[in-house]
UniProtKB/TrEMBL annotation, chains A, B:
<dbReference type="GO" id="GO:0045907">
    <property type="term" value="P:positive regulation of vasoconstriction"/>
</dbReference>
<dbReference type="GO" id="GO:0007613">
    <property type="term" value="P:memory"/>
</dbReference>
<comment type="pathway">
    <text>Catecholamine biosynthesis; (R)-noradrenaline biosynthesis; (R)-noradrenaline from dopamine: step 1/1.</text>
</comment>
<dbReference type="InterPro" id="IPR020611">
    <property type="entry name" value="Cu2_ascorb_mOase_CS-1"/>
</dbReference>
<dbReference type="InterPro" id="IPR000945">
    <property type="entry name" value="DBH-like"/>
</dbReference>
<dbReference type="GO" id="GO:1905562">
    <property type="term" value="P:regulation of vascular endothelial cell proliferation"/>
</dbReference>
<keyword id="KW-1015">Disulfide bond</keyword>
<keyword id="KW-0812">Transmembrane</keyword>
<dbReference type="InterPro" id="IPR014783">
    <property type="entry name" value="Cu2_ascorb_mOase_CS-2"/>
</dbReference>
<dbReference type="InterPro" id="IPR000323">
    <property type="entry name" value="Cu2_ascorb_mOase_N"/>
</dbReference>
<dbReference type="GO" id="GO:0034451">
    <property type="term" value="C:centriolar satellite"/>
</dbReference>
<keyword id="KW-0735">Signal-anchor</keyword>
<keyword id="KW-0847">Vitamin C</keyword>
<keyword id="KW-0186">Copper</keyword>
<dbReference type="Pfam" id="PF03351">
    <property type="entry name" value="DOMON"/>
</dbReference>
<dbReference type="GO" id="GO:0001975">
    <property type="term" value="P:response to amphetamine"/>
</dbReference>
<dbReference type="Pfam" id="PF01082">
    <property type="entry name" value="Cu2_monooxygen"/>
</dbReference>
Length: 621, 621
């Protein structure tokens, strides 16, 4: 656990009620730069970098964030590098990356000096100083590279204007102040140059498993791609394993990002193609190109996935992901998502993923299992909903049949929805009681789908139930959004990575179609026969004809919470395990896990009541 | 506003982390009684009694509570008289009078001394000292009458273990400690002699209107009743106004409780009989007696109502309640509810109500209007519900038609449900937005139905909507509870007292019966035709045959929140105003009032961290 900086206090912290008073106190100090030294920081610096995690915030690379996590203190230490400071910067977090209702730390200047304060923006983007200062400045240092700000913040602050830092995606926001201010309160974020960056802040602190002595590496990179001058590009590149490449275990992988392109390479995935095809044509080009060979659509088995801000992915010491050898395709597809909002042209890139693999196969093959909802239109979200929840089940009957007696161990998870997904969670239930969260993301974004190592391996026994719930926002839709493969349809999936591998590839559910049919008839009856939900119509057509009044919405919710389900308990995407899987009862859950309430740090009352005054440039006083 | 005792501190308050340490510090003090003086208390005592409100807590009269309210400080000052102190007492509040999950103040003794502390009981009745001490002892004084404890508490404390003191009913609880304790934590309330008393703690602070010079009084009392030796008796007594008694205005009334029977007389009401009957036979006896004349059932027009802990009821200066004169019955029925849990026998009582009336009629007649749900079985509560809400409407169409252009002014309210009612609230909405609470009781009890003067008169304009919602608990029912007159059926009514009187006596609603019929057919369809909801069956029979799974519950809720309503917009209980009142749309509410969140007093951090040590008897140390 990182303990540096633990109980440190900035030497010049001013608990003053009035910023102007404080400013005049220090306004006379003329110094080119002033370092607020933190004694503890210098005492016991850890061997490796104190900030293991890095991310560029803006596409120009003006702001760069590094951070470290103390789970013991429930605190994050941030280091923000501001390469070209004008009159100040804003940095913070918000629910989904908006600059309104954001939790902010602001470095700002007036004619007298510079200040650092915990602030927040209201729903109109107006910035206010926080009555409780939870971002605590530890050091401010000007270097040739730029200004370094070191500060810390507890995960939870108990301040209703503050963001609660949770597991999963965090939407970081930033903004630039161009001119000195009269006061902090004069800032409205709508008038600033701002942006957002998604990242998993609370990375798990998992000890790195030792790599086998014979570990070799293989780089899957699209060589010398000319990044297109457009905001979004998915680049597809096909490569192949050497002829006769035998079965190996992937034990780790890491990103290779071409230097200078750190802010452009958003995410990358390596897929294995279907073994059915003898060969797959080589290709290097945009995935939506008309030139793309059709067969690339059959390269969907994930071998590795990386997204911005992630570090290396390690398999548990006992397990590895098999690739190569008979029965598997030699062909791999690399997909690189370039995010180029400034429409930079002429930039070349050779980013990709470096696989670490061993011929000395580990004890267990790792596997990937799909949990959640089956891809069917019977599961639908009414339009204009702000938080509609759909739930998919992996029932006790399926796990009883398909899992080994000793159970399986889930060590990583990739959550997946299409465009309207806002939250995803998978919960484990045993004997009708929810016992554990497998993975939860309360700020899930379909634009940021990482494979995440779990903080704690979750063991699933035969007879356990896995419940995956997705929350959708369809405020911008005029018709119901049905389940399906299309980008405007929805999914609710958790790809869990586990070992030992089993034959169970897919454990998902959907409402019984007969009960949905009763629902359409009911809607028909309650709406004075105005609506024709013709029995010949398809399910999407029937959903499209529902008048979405409160009753039809509530009854659909009640139906999904009550009606029996069709289980998809499958060996592969089409082959079910033997048994009766239609009209299965919903798992009965008698005891739910409660959302954890953040416990308020005892040190809360000790935080300064006003902003910290600092002097980072020639004062005028 | 009462300001005495404002910033007072007990002289011996010990902010000690350890009770035992504190005990040993003071254990050597030997004093028969010790007074903790409060300087501020002696400075500026108000002219009238500092404790305008009184209530006996236990039927033996051992504990007597007096209190005063400072709305400016949002604090209640309590004076608890303990007539026969053994080893200690518990006093406090809980949601519905249970001794578990109660917010308690405890006076307890060990071998070294006596202590006063803020405590709470968990769901098993185990008592714990509160980490935040919000009951603050101001004085402890032994007198020949008993021990007086003076303490105060803010309405809200922001401590999750504390009760929030709100408008409406408060369930006070108490208990007696028979033996000295090793520690507070050794108390479990299940082993004690305990009880509950309901009271409206937050009485409104309304200036008393001046009474007319010619005010006369009339006492309606059942003379010399021998209180039956049983727990519950409703006593009925018929009396009459003098022959030719002309029209008067009642301007005030107050209880007359026979001395010594304060803990036995639970509530009293005076009703006027229906004018249709020339005469009503005289009677004095239990209301459920077979000897009771049938005609007494037609004496239901409330003239006055009082319940334990209430003081005098005043009409606003501009209005009075008409009685006497042509067109109204001369006959009155007094109903007294004796609550006799100790089954005391041989006690005689002549309690009743004293009416203050004037012949100089005031400008306005006061009226009573029924809001809420019509008495019909179409509104029903499924069994096993902990908090099922039914809502009745007084629509804009009805108020537009029936109220005068200048509107009406509601100054008092009596909430009414049968046995499963737990909360009642009436909200005023204008132009689709909720603007004001007319009356709310979050701890409503059907055993405690007072007419309550409102803290603030609520004006209702033509076109306004009045929404009355009742929350029911049917955990102990096996079948649905339908609306109706029977004691096992339910009601949801707010009798509002207002002026000027209008012809609108009843403004209530119920779901459209046609839509309920559709619901029964839907239930039939969704439950595999197992249930026969025969179309010939009555509504209660149909409700009795519904299998109460989650779907049928949720859909009933959705139906009540969506289906059109039948309006009862009536001149008298049977005569509707002219117009179409069937299949009316539900009022559309675009903006709801939020439940007020208690704002935490700034002084909170100053409260002592441990109990207060006091010495009220000869110490042993």
């Amino acid at each position: 656990m990182a303990r540096w900086g633990g109980r440190a206090r900035p030497a010049m912290q001013v608990p003053s009620p009035s910023v102007r008073e404080a400013a005049s106190m220090y306004g006379t100090a003329v110094a080119v730069f002033l370092v607020i030294l933190v004694a503890a920081l210098q005492g016991s610096a850890p061997a490796e970098s104190p900030f293991p995690f890095h991310i560029p915030l803006d596409p120009e690379g003006t702001l760069e964030l590094s951070w470290n996590i103390s789970y013991a203190q429930e605190t994050i230490y941030f280091q923000l590098l501001v390469r070209e400071l004008k009159a100040g910067v804003l940095f913070g977090m918000s629910d989904r990356g908006e600059l309104e209702n954001a939790d902010l730390v602001v470095l700002w200047t007036d004619r007298d000096g510079a200040y650092f304060g915990d602030a927040w923006s209201d729903q109109k983007g107006q910035v206010h100083l926080d009555s409780q200062q939870d971002y605590q400045l530890l050091r401010a240092q000007r270097t040739p590279e730029g200004l370094y700000l070191l500060f810390k913040r507890p995960f939870g602050t108990c301040d209703p204007n503050d963001y609660l830092i949770e597991d999963g995606t965090v939407h970081l926001v930033y903004g630039f102040l161009e001119e000195p201010l009269r006061s902090l309160e004069s800032i409205n974020t709508s008038g600033l140059h701002t942006g957002l960056q998604r990242v998993q802040l609370l990375k798990p602190s998992i000890p790195k498993p030792a790599l086998p002595a014979d570990t070799r590496t293989m780089e899957i990179r699209a060589p010398d791609v000319l990044i297109p001058g457009q905001q979004t590009t998915y680049w597809c590149y096909v490569t192949e394993l050497p002829d006769g490449f035998p079965r190996h275990h992937i034990v780790m992988y890491e990103p290779i990002v071409t230097e200078g392109n750190e802010a452009l390479v958003h995410h990358m995935e390596v897929f294995q193609c279907a073994a059915e095809f003898e060969t797959i044509p080589h290709f290097s080009g945009p995935c939506d190109s008309k030139m793309k060979p059709q067969r690339l659509n059959f390269c969907r088995h994930v071998l590795a996935a990386w997204a911005l801000g992630a570090k290396a992915f390690y398999y548990p010491e006992e397990a590895g992901l098999a690739f190569g050898g008979p029965g598997s395709s030699r062909f791999l597809r690399l997909e690189v998502h370039y995010h180029n909002p400034l429409v930079i042209t002429g930039r070349r890139d050779s980013s990709g993923i470096r696989l670490y693999y061993t011929a000395a196969l580990r004890r267990f093959d790792a596997g990937i299992m799909e949990l959640g909802l089956a891809y069917t239109p019977v599961m639908a979200i009414p339009p204009q909903e702000t938080a509609f929840v759909l739930t998919g089940y992996c029932t006790d009957k399926c796990t009883q049949l398909a899992l080994p007696a000793s159970g399986i161990h889930i060590f990583a998870s990739q959550l997946h929805t299409h465009l309207t997904g806002r939250k995803v969670v998978t919960v484990l239930a045993r004997d009708g009681r929810e016992t554990e969260i497998v993975n939860r993301d309360n700020h899930y974004s379909p634009h940021f789908q990482e494979i995440r190592m779990l903080k704690k391996v979750v063991s699933v026994q035969p007879g356990d139930v896995l419940i995956t719930s997705c929350t959708y926002n369809t405020e911008d839709r005029r018709l119901a959004t049905v389940g399906g493969f299309g980008i405007l349809e929805e999914m609710c999936v958790n790809y869990v990575h586990y070992y030992p591998q089993t034959q169970l590839e897919l454990c998902k559910s959907a409402v019984d179609p007969g009960f949905l049919h009763k629902y359409f008839r009911l809607v028909n009856r309650f709406n004075s026969e105005e609506v024709c939900t013709c029995p010949q119509a398809s399910v999407p057509e029937q959903f499209a004809s529902v008048p979405w009044n409160s009753f039809n919405r509530e009854v659909l919710k009640a139906l999904y919470g009550f009606a029996p389900i069709s289980m998809h308990c499958n060996r592969s995407s089409a082959v079910r395990f033997q048994g009766e899987w239609n009209r299965q009862p919903l798992p009965e859950i008698v005891s739910r896990l409660e959302e954890p309430t953040p416990h308020c740090p005892a040190s809360q009352a000790q935080s300064p009541a006003g902003p910290t005054v600092l002097n980072i440039s020639g004062g005028k006083g």
